[in-house]
Design a protein that fits this description.
heterodimer; A: alpha/beta; Rossmann fold; 3 domains; six-stranded mixed sheet; B: mainly alpha; 2 domains; 9 helices; 4 strands
Chain lengths: 553, 295
Amino acid sequence: MEHFKIENLTFSYPAASDRTVLKNVNLTIQKGEYIVLCGKSGSGKTTLLRHLKTVLTPHGSRTGQVLFHNTPLDRIGSGEQAARIGYVMQNPDDQIVTDKVWHELAFGLECLGCDQQTMRARVAEMACYFGIQDWFHRDVNALSGGQKQLLNLASIMAMQPEVLILDEPTSQLDPIAASDFLNTIRKINTELGTTVIVTEHRLEDIFPYADRVVVMKNGEIIADDAPGTIGKYLYEQKEELFLAMPTPMRVFYSAKGTGTCPLTVREGRKWLNRTVPDELMVRALPEQPVYDVQQKPVLTVKELWFRYEKNGPDILRGVSGQVPAGSLYAIVGGNGAGKSTLLKVLCGLNRPYRGKIKLFGKPLEQYKPEELFRNGVSMLPQDPKSLFVKKTVREELLEMDTDEKRLEQVSEICQITAVLDSHPYDLSGGEQQRAALAKVLLTQPRLLLLDEPTKGMDSFFKETFASVLQKLKQQGITVVMVSHDVEFCAQYADRVSMFFDGQLLSTGTPRQFFGANSFYTTAASRMSRGVFENAVTAGAVAELCRLNLEEQK
Amino acid sequence: MMEQDAFGKCHPAVNFLFFVGAIGFGVLIQHPVYLAAGALCAGIYYMLLHGAQGWKRILQLLPLFVLLTLINPLFNIQGERVLFDVFGRPYTLEALIYGADVAGIFVVMLLWFGCYNRILTGDKFTSLFGNWIPAISLLLVMVFRMVPGLMGKSKQIAAARRSVGKGVGTSTRQKLDAGMAVLSALISWALEGSVVTGDSMRARGYGTAKRTSFQLYRMTVRDGLLLATMMFLGASVIGVAVMGGMGAEFTPRLQIAPVSGWSVLGLAAYCLFLLIPTAMHCKEALQWSISKLKI
């Protein structure tokens, strides 16, 4: 039974009618399928998803049609569509309409004019299924991002839709909340048989469970196949999207593996054990250069203690450490552990009640604000939007520095020259992040603090962003970032520290650090544990495979 | 969310009617005996709800009471018994008593509103009016949702700007500029968010059918009985008032209706009405301690 049938859909926005956002899209979605839609930002994924619900369909010129149960979608009433087609968007916060959890759960049912009995039953059912009972009476403002997104999902499921459409639902969540959320989606699909269509950056978590993967590029569907075979196609076509594939898959194809392609870490381990010989010639990659800490630390902190309120709990409980000049220093750790608080203390926004901070060899409290933030330290906040106050990106930059030449330089480094005259809110997530970075860089910092810089970025933007960071490092800027993104830190950081219980524990190079961890580490490290010693990225595992196989010959 | 007491767990309509009665009668009846009764009942319930801190807050109201009392005769010079002259104007006993009465009414209002905030929370209020005026009730709910969110965001923006060295100036001009920048950023952010909220509402069928309203609170037989009792007591108070049992004139001459004979009934009804929440609170506390004793 067909759910959706998209026939020859072509679409362009009225403002840019020469640029077609969707080109001749044909897609059939069967009942109960789990479909992952992937592609770079701007490849038309969101536009396509929005065509599956009439009230969200954008205005513009369109040919072709969308059929729902063999009826053109726009001939089905919006009330019926609201109930049968559920749609979850990206931003967990803005989707919520009411102030209480229970009211939000009931909102859709209220709109559809359900009677009291039905509403009670459905709301109770949903609260139990999603484990919301404990926070049923709470204010939505008191919820975490993960809880908010779960609430959005639950309030849509309360209307009992047949199809669930999710547009990058986890991009604003931390990895643990994201994987919880995606597990819930899988549960809905397997236990209730609800059709799921999802776009995601975090393919690692959903690839193994998807029935089909649909790949989009420049508004066209370039591939539509089972997850196992899609990697092969992308690898052979040398598509950039290959970078977004799960680690075991990338290792398999990069090392020219044979047999069926592994999708999960478990399958990856099996494959690796089968492939490499028992007696390894090369077990580990050479150690990464260790920065000489004694020589020139940019930042030294000793025994920092901090809490927000007099009677509140201590957030920092004796943080000590040194950041070597010119390094990219990553601090990883759980959610709400106080990593962001640490950054605020480091740039003088919050004052520790005990301990010392030395910045460029001078105690932090001896700096005047104008001295500290001019050619000193600067911080990129977690949400780039909190830095935007003007109408165009250019004005944003001019606010920081009126020197045209420097402005040009910085926008070139951050690769935002093309969007200088756009409104900051019209940029994509990755562009916003880089525009905000440009703004921060115009204070000419020698120490740059980044708070979760890769949040919401897809793998291409991450790579672009990493190259920007490399350029900054070459200019002698030291970077300290806090992040959940272990894959990014493993690949690009020079030193990694674990933040736990208000302290910095176990510092080392990514190979030392992630090589020694067995849970809090990258998929590549988990996959190669016990076989190789310090392979923490997909590239490293593939490299070691290749070396050993060559030796064998 | 704060735990509710026995009265707070009743249907919002019961809570609402009580406060309409307590505050309405409190303002309209100026009779000093009724005022004293009201102050006593309000004070007791306020302390039951706020615990040890209640004492402090009530004591903090005393200076206000004294101040309001002393000020009235300065503006109101009517009255027979002149105590002394201030700025060449008579300061009369009647005006002083009247001042005390009005100040008392004001303090009692503050106490009742203190209880109101604890009992009739925002969601109870909106659920109460959700059925009658759905559009306004939804609007209120969305405002309740937006305001704390915007406050949080404005703090976030200010912090983000300070971390790049903006908005750290100390002069009034600089502070004003910093405030304007935060405000303009906040508006863009809120507008963008409201587009998403609008999409989310339409995606869930807003405007496709006649809205119903989810009732979290159910009207039970006990709630009905409470409502009936409250209406009966309230009607008795009004009846006695209409018959002139609560008349009180302060200036130019004190003329206060005596509370005796039939008009005692009015005072009794008024006290019973005001003591309903206190009685329910105490009954529950007593039940718990008895059942603990049995263990």
